[in-house]
Amino acid sequence: MSAVAIEQSNKPQPSATIVDSAWDTALSNAIVKTGLGFGAGVVVSVLLFKRRAFPVWLGVGFGLGRSYAEADSVFRQAGLRKKMTNTEPLYATHNEFRSDTFTVPTRKMLESVLTCTTGDSVYKEDQDCLDLEDKVARLCGKEAALFCSSGTMSNQIGLRANLFQPPHSILCDYRAHVYTHEAGGLATLSQAMVTPVIPANGDYLTLDDILDNYIPDDGDIHMAPTKVISLENTLHGIITPYEEIKKISAWCQENDIKFHCDGARLWNAAAETGISMFDYCTLFDSVSLCLSKSIGAPYGSILVGSRKFIEKCNHFKKQNGGGIRQAGMLARMASIAIDDNFSKLQISHSYAKDFGRFCQEQGIPLESPVDSSFVFLDYKKVKINPHVYELASKKYNVKTMGNRVAFHYQNSPESIENLKLALLEAYKDSLVNPYYTKGASKLYRSSSSGSDHTLVEMNAIAERKARN
């Protein structure tokens, strides 16, 4: 299948399992029809031709011919031959490594829209939306849930509902999505200061990190007291150990501090560790779960907590334009994604770990361990020119973005091998032409800025400065 054909259709191709089934059916039919043809030939020979062999072989030939025709028809319909070894459908996003948000809805999701409910969910009259909220609340061991437009919305209104009035602050990892990638929402919606913390271990927050940075009510009046601890799990693909979360949760309860989880990819942590969503979520006062990332729904996020908390969040949702009318079609697809795709998350984890091992074998440093579905290249140590990387990615027909490599269940093994070739080509170029950047580092880098220079360019700049 050509790349153009793949990009023109989101329709998954038949898997090897389907082809194997078709092969078995065709083979069985071939045996039966050949046998019937042989039998018919014998009967004709006995009755009409006095046991001459010619009609017998004519019957066998007829049976074989019919068998071949049927087998050929089966394989033409499948669009594949027995020699195919790919065990997963090939999606339009098979070569997409920028984000797991690029996954496309499956045919099952799209077909479900035809039978979804169409009530007004703002008035709590859309049954599919209500069913999704009830389903996720029970899955997480919470009283209620709220279907939201995005992870940013569910995080922001969840944190706002956990706060009372300023002055207050939220403590989180310095890389946390709620702090770095939600357009300053905590400052505008919650009027909250943020205490960004660099983990002492370099990977994830611990209770010791929190104790070192926590601001109590009776502390320095120049500072805003800590009222919420926000923990992202997974963060950069790193899984915070369950026992560490339990310690933080117990401390928060003892000190009347709200504990929120940005669980955009908590699904991945649960899939990797075997710890249930119920066990994870019961440690938090509130949890935001993204539906359009690794779990593969086309839209939405969901917030879980106590019934009173969710009622308050619904006010903030409405206030910020989050009311969705006929949400049933979106909720139905999200529900199917949870049912069908959770078991597939390990696929993306195995892809990421394989790619991480490849990087280590090639001497390409990584920022952090590969626990789940992300690999982060260490751009402080790897001087890859983003232009070269971009061109290499196009050459090998893969889509990349900066130092973050995101894997999902719709990736294909072939595209992962092409990704390795693209990165290796860019890395080898960096050994000859190292690339440097001045100023703040950029997490998602798809192109260079005016302050970025190769070593040759930096030497030329230095020479000009020396002359002046």
Automatic annotation (TrEMBL):
UniProt-listed Gene3D superfamilies: Type I PLP-dependent aspartate aminotransferase-like (Major domain) (3.40.640.10)
Return the Pfam families for the record: Beta_elim_lyase, DUF543
> Required cofactors, per record?
pyridoxal 5'-phosphate
How this chain sits in the membrane, per its record, is: Single-pass membrane protein
GO CC annotations on file = cytosol; MICOS complex
User: Does Lyase count among this protein's keywords?
Assistant: yes
Localization (cell): Mitochondrion inner membrane
Gene Ontology biological process: glycine biosynthetic process; L-threonine catabolic process
Q: Which CDD domains match?
A: TA_like
NCBIfam families on file: GntG_guanitoxin
On assembly, the entry states: Component of the mitochondrial contact site and cristae organizing system (MICOS) complex.
- The protein's name: MICOS complex subunit MIC10
